[in-house]
Amino acid sequence: QLVESGGGLVQPGGSLRLSCAASGSTFRVYVMGWYRQAPGKQRELIAQISTSGAPNYAYSVKGRFTISRDNTKSMLYLQMNNLTPQDTAVYYCNAQGSSSFWGQGTQVTVSS
Question: In this model, does residue 41 exceed pLDDT 80?
Answer without folding.
Answer: yes
